[in-house]
Amino acid sequence: MSIEQHREYVLRSVEERGVRLVRLWFTDILGNLKSLAISPAELDNALNDGMTFDGSSIDGFSRIQEADVLAVPDPDTFELLPWADPKSPEARIFCDIHNLDGTPFAGDPRQVLRRHIKAAHEAGLTFYVAPDIEFFYFEPPTAGAPPVPIDDGGFFDLTTQDVTGELRKQTIRTLETMGIPVEYSFHEDAPGQQEIDLRHTDALTMADSVMTFRLTVREVAARNGVHATFMPKPLEGVQGSGMHTHLSLFRGDDNAFFDGDDPYDLSATAKAFMAGLLRHAPEITAVTNQTVNSYKRLVPGFEAPVHVSWARNNRSGLIRVPIAKRNNPLATRLEYRSPDPACNPYLAFSLLLAAGMRGIEEGYELPDEADANLFEIGDDVLAKLGVGQLPQSLHSALETMESSSLVQEALGEHIFEWFLRNKRSEWRAYKTHVSAFERDRYLTAL
Amino acid sequence: MLVVLPDPASPDLARTLDLGGYAWKAVGSTEGAAEYEPPNGWSAAVVDAAADADGAWAFLRTLRKQRDVTIPVLLLISGAQLAELDHRDELFDDFCLTPFHPAELEARLRHLLAGDVAVSTADIIEYGALTLNAETYQAAIAGRPLDMTYMEYELLKFLAQNPGKVFTREILLSRVWGYEYYGGARTVDVHVRRLRAKLGEEHANLIQTVRSVGYRFGQSRWEH
Predict the structure, then answer these.
(1) pTM for this predicted structure
(2) What is the ipTM metric for this complex?
């Protein structure tokens, strides 16, 4: 299918559906969705030559000399926005960011993921991803007050006045009209907490879908007077929100992770890929868990991983190998459990792929399965077993990331350096903050 | 003036066209066809698929889909390639088996140029609650407009044009995507899932999964 036909289709749809506004979407380094609205009349030009804009206004896009960059729409991502006013329809289209000379812009996370997908293609592999995204519904927040969950339901609960169930249903319907199929959805463990699992698709489409997902969830909630948040740990003492990410590699139509002769049904490729993830996990954690708050989720006792280990059906490890239904070879996959839904999906998927591919290229050896509940074993015992921990704070994650040539190479110098600088300053701001915890504990006692 | 693919044309074809007194130009690509197109347009295309069938299909797809005016197409194909014609009816008007008899080729060409061949103009495709307009690229289910990406649209159109028939993923990939698409047959599954999501729960079963074979649009011809 030629690119001209895609463009023609987009232009024709805009005309036929009377689209009044086209939103050009792209993502900054921290994973915030950015939008540049143009009129349909400009779309033809934009599709052919891209739209110039001043990149210096976008976090992480600024460079001293060349501030102008080009947003080039990807016609295959054209969708009408279901929440727009039907009388003046709006559409969105994801963009790749280029320099004015047409080369990929080094600060564009979507281009980073494209580069990794291309490298995997060259090795004959396609990368499929399926995230399980958790989030909370709260009453509209008031500054200074703790957030109030909109219900006090628990895991899989079906309450009589099921407001959250209705919200979830509306959200799923909206996602599906945008071509984002949902596999499961349910009430999670904590009050107001939800989980929606997306059906697997190729990594680039999935990263776009995660961006669309976060906006859709917030949009539908806001329309119902509810605040949705992807903050990793909004409430103390209950589970935080994760984004467990199911990963598989296909060689043509065959699952490269499956080997029916192996007792685990795992191929040598799967084992080496998993070994790569385990070895480099601490280095990529600053990106998969990029906020100060992320590390308040990665603690024992709340079903979030703490230790760098793998097992078949043990939810306390970093990687779980789910047992495939009916031994379906296509369903063999790895579930990487540390990421949270506040990450930049383009960069997170890039690093997961890069770490796993490094394992394949270098033929890393997979450590033994850790099938005991790791939360109940002492750290000293684990250390003897060679089971390390994920970084315990944003600070330590950044230190580990900075020493990683894999991450530096995988993100490219521009993003690597900008990310470290930005996150260091976040850490400094946090470190100097005097919290209620400290005042409660020390003000009168000391 | 006839446009001929590939460049150079086979000696047999060149001789037949010359002896028949046709003005013709061999091109190697759609870009070539556009570059050398006479001001009053090509009168017909003769496409020899014997050497490179995939190239020929790609050429025809572009020729047929990117123009407002449909150029009559005569396809040259070997007996071993006949299966390739399945579900590509919209890409050609007539065909001639190679090696061809010069008189047959001339007769078919004459017939084609006389304009007797009805070029298919099935612009509206309807099945149950689904309506597709091939001219405007629009689709609706039970009167509700469906918004699709281009590939989703093309896949749905192909399926809706052939209701009741079971297609393997490979066939769908080669006929809809039109070339050895990288994602492999998994691409088809992913698109079918997206299409079902957009059709909505009530109509998702318009595209049925036929276990360990592929997909079928609508009811089988044998059940009612």
Answers:
(1) 0.81
(2) 0.72
